[in-house]
Amino acid sequence: QVQLVESGGGLVQAGGSLRLSCVASGRTFSSYQMGWFRQAPGKEREFVAEISMSGDSTYTASSVMGRFTVSRDNANNMVYLQMNALKPEDTAVYYCAAKRIPSGPYVYWGQGTQVTVSS
């Protein structure tokens, strides 16, 4: 089992940048595929990006491709989401998630961190 805690959210102007961090508990962090999701008010949770266990493969949603980058540091149990050129429509609660089976659903979730982009 793994526990996830996100940080780094906040208020930023459109065009600005933020870097979200997620720290995971446990000694087997490198055994988990990691993902980022977001949920805007009144909308369903949506996929943002994910990264493989080793970090050599990433996948990013088309809505944020070219602006958001996911990375991880297995030595420190960390996963990051670098967000550039932020838009008001990026406003949401951002969640970190983990799973051990790449083809399965995300099982473990953090509590979320709020990102607000002002126009």
Describe this structure in words.
- The chain is 0% helix and 50% strand.
- The strands form two sheets. Strands 2, 4, 5, 6, 9, 10 and 11 form a seven-stranded mixed sheet that branches.
- The chain is mostly beta strands and 119 residues long.
Short account of what is shown:
The protein contains no helices and eleven strands. With 119 residues, the chain is mainly beta. The strands form two sheets. Strands 2, 4, 5, 6, 9, 10 and 11 form a seven-stranded mixed β-sheet that branches. A four-stranded antiparallel β-sheet has the order 1-3-8-7, with no helix packed on it.
List keywords for this structure.
globular, 7-stranded mixed sheet, 4-stranded antiparallel sheet, 0% helix, mainly beta, 119 residues
Topology of helices and strands:
Layout: E1 4-7, E2 10-13, E3 18-24, E4 33-39, E5 46-51, E6 58-60, E7 68-73, E8 78-83, E9 92-99, E10 108-109, E11 113-118
